[in-house]
Amino acid sequence: MEAFGQSIPFDRELARQDVQGSLAHAEMLASVGLIAKKDFTAIRKGLQEIRRDIEDGKFVFDPANEDIHMSIEADLTRRIGDAAKKLHTGRSRNDQVATDLRLWTREKIDAITERLRLLMLAFVAVAERERDIIIPGYTHLQRAQPVMLAHHLLAYVEMFGRDRERLADCRRRTNRLPLGSGALAGSTLPLDRELIRDRLGFDSLCENSMDAVSDRDFVLETLSDLAIVAIHTSRLAEDIILWTSSEWGLAKLDDAWSTGSSIMPQKRNPDLLELTRGKTGRVVGSLVSLLTVVKGLPMTYNRDLQEDKEPLFDAVRTVEFVLECLTEFLPTLRFNKTRAAEMLKDGYLDATVLAEYLVEKGLPFRSAHEVSGQLVRLGEDSGRQLGELSLEEMRAVSTLITNEIFKRLDPARTPTSYATAGAAGPRSVTKALGGWKRKLAKKA
Ligand code: ARG
Fold it and tell me: Which ligand 1 atom sits nearest the alpha carbon of residue 7?
C-alpha cells in the first residue's frame, strides 16, 4: 500500500509552492491568535531554511514520507521540534494540495504565455525578412491561389495569439484560493482566508469548501489550452516537413536542426519537427487522461485526484521545451526564393483572378467561373498556363477579355491586388506586422 500510494517521486515538483502556502498559513494562524508569535517565528525560520535547501537542491525528499506535504512537515519537525506540530491547524492536505497546485499552475501559465510571445516574435521577424517571397497557397493540399509567405507565417502568429488569450482566461479561474476549506467542510476555527489570499496573490477565494477541494477544472482547462498549443505546433511542424521535403524543396533545414541517417549519407531528416508532431500525442493524452480520472468522481476529494499531477507536469514540460526549440529553430530555416517562383508557374493559380476580372467587366460570377474553367481546360490540354494562351483563344470563349488581361495573369504579382482586409497580400501583411510588433513589445 505504501508503494502504491506514494506521490513523493513526482509531487516533489510542488515543494516550493508547498513552503509558500505554509508560510502564508502560519502567518494567518498567528494573526488570528491560533498559534503564538514565537511559534510562528520558529515555523517561518524553519520553512525559510527548507526553501533555501530546495532551491540549492539540498533538500532530502525522504521516501519514508508519502507525499511532499508530509515530507516538508516531517523535515520542519526535525528542525524546530514541537512548534511544527501546530502548522497543520485548520488545514487538510486536501485544501493544501489544491492550493499548491494552483500556485504551480499559475507560474507555468505565465511562463508558457511568455514563451508563446517569444515564438510569435520569431515568426514576425522571419515574416518580415521573407516579405518578397510569394508561394502557392493550398486548400485540400492542392495549389489554390498565390499568397505571401509572410501571410502564411503570420497565420501561426494568430493561432499562438489565441493560445495566449485562452491561457489568460484560464489564469483568472486558476487564481482563486482553496486554502481554509479544510478537508471538505471548512473549519470551526476562526481562520482568516482573506489574509492568506492576499499573501499568496490570489484574486479571490474559492467560495464553496466542497468544490474547493474537489475542483480540478483549472488543471483540465490548462491541459486543454496546452493541447491546443501542441496541436498548433504540430500543424506548423507538418507544414515545415512538407516545405523541406525533397518533393517541395521550398525550404532547407539548417545543419544544427536536422539529423542524418545511420545508413543513407544524403539524408537531412526533420526530427525536431517530427518529434514536435509526435509529442502532441502526449499532450492530448494528458488531457484525456485527467478528463477520464475526474469523470464519475463523487464529491468531494478522492484519492484519484492524486493522478492529476503527472499528466499536468508532463504536458507543461513538453510544451515548454517544444516552444523553446521552435523559437530557436525558426530563424534558421532557409527559404528558396527561386523554387517558390517556379512553384507559382503551374497549377493555374491565376484562374480566380481571371474570373474576378470578368466580374469587373460585368459578367455574373457563376458565368465568369465557367469561362475561367474553360480556359484552364484549354491550357491543360495544350500544356500551357493561362498567360500563355493567345488573346484570340481567350476571346473565342469570352469577348469581354481584352489585352489588359495579360498584366493580371501573373501569380507572382497577384497578391499586390488583393484588396480585402486580412487578405494574403502586402497591404494586410504590413498592417499585421505593425500590429503584432506593437502588441508583442511588452512581456505582460
Ligand atoms: N498526495 C495527495 C494528492 O496529491 C495529497 C492529498 C491527500 N489527501 C488525503 N486525504 N489523503 O492528492
Answer: 1
Residue whose CB lies within 8 A of the most ligand 1 atoms, among 97, 105, 181, 299, for a mutation test: 97
Measuring from atom 12 of ligand 1, which residue has the nearest CA? 306
List the catalytic residues.
140, 261
- The Cα–Cα gap between 259 and 271 comes to 7
State the pLDDT at residue 440.
Answer: 98
CA 229 vs CA 119, 123, 242, 259, 437: distances in Å: 12, 15, 20, 25, 21
Q: Sorting pLDDT into bands at 50, 70 and 90, what band is 266?
A: confident
CA of residue 96 to ligand 1 center, whole Å:
9
With bands split at pLDDT 50, 70 and 90, how would you rate the model's confidence at 39? very high
How many Å lie between the centroid of ligand 1 and the Cα of residue 305? 8
pLDDT digit string, tens, across residues 216-251: 999 999 999 999 999 999 999 999 999 999 999 999
Question: What residues flank ligand 1, with Cβ below 6 Å?
Answer: 7, 11, 67, 93-94, 97, 303, 305-306
Q: pLDDT tens digit string along 81-103?
A: 999 999 999 999 999 999 999 99
Residues in the chain: 444
Poorest-pLDDT segment among 169-178, 198-207, 208-217, 406-415: 406-415
Closest ligand 1 atom number to CA of residue 67: 1
Q: 365: which residues sit within 8 A by CB, 6+ positions away?
A: 355, 359
Say if residue 443's pLDDT is above 90: no
pTM of this structure? 0.95
All cell numbers assigned to 74: 516531517
Ligand 1 centre and the CA of 69: distance in Å? 9
> Of 14, 302, 306, which is best to mutate to test ligand 1, by the most ligand atoms within 8 angstroms of its C-beta?
306
CA 38–ligand 1 middle distance (angstroms): 30
